[in-house]
Amino acid sequence: MVIEITGVPTSEAGADLEQLVTRVFFKAIDLLGGLSKLTEFRTLTWLPSLARAAYVVVLREEYLRTEEEIAQKVGLTKNTVRSILRADPTLAMEKIQKLEELAKEELKEMKVHTAGGIAKLAYKMVKEGNEAEILSHFCTVVAEEVARALDIPWAYAVLKHLRGVKFPIQDSQVLKERLKGVKIKTYPAEEVVDKLPYPIRTPAVLLHEIKLAISALEEQK
C-alpha cells in the first residue's frame, strides 16, 4: 500500500516534520492494537486516514499552520481539516476500547472525526515520551548493537534482558525482575536501578541514568 501525502510545505518538509509525523502515525497504529489487529479486523484501509490526520495535527500543533494552509498543503478540504482538529480524543479512546464495534461501523474507511481523535491522542502521548512499541523495540535493538560494538558489556547485558519491555518504565520493579542476578560493572543491578529517576522513557535514557548512578556509587567508595 502506498500512502501519498501531497503538497507538504517546503519549510516543514525536513527530517523533523517527517520524523514526528511518523512517530505519531505509529503511535496511532499502536493505539488500535497494531497492524496485526488491523489485519484481523480487515481495517488496513484506515491507514491513509490516520496518516493524513497525523500530518494535520502535527502541522497545527508544531508549526501553527491555519486550517486553510493545512488544507492547501496536505491536499484536504478545509472542512476536513477542521473536523480533524475539532475531533475529541476522549471519544476516540472510547471507540478504541470497543474496537470490534468500531471495525464494523467504519469497515471501509475510518471517519474523519475518529482518525482526528486518535491522531490527537497519539500526538499527546508521543510528546509525553510514550512512543509506539515498535519504535521502542527498534531503539532497543539498535542500542544493543551499539553497546556490543563499543564493547560495553553491562549495557549490552541490560538491553538484552529488557527485550520486550514497554517504555516508559514507571518504577524499578520491572527492571528488578528482568535484571535479577545481572551485574552492572561490580554492582548488583537491583542496587543500581533503585537509584534511577522514574519514569524512564527510552532505552537511551535508561543507559544514561545507569551510567550516572554507577558514577555516583563509585564516588562514594
TrEMBL record:
> Which InterPro entries does the protein's record reference?
CHP03879_regulat_dom_put
What superkingdom heads the lineage?
Answer: Bacteria
Name used for this protein in its record? Bacterio-opsin activator HTH domain-containing protein
The species this protein was found in:
Thermocrinis ruber
Lineage of origin? Bacteria, Pseudomonadati, Aquificota, Aquificia, Aquificales
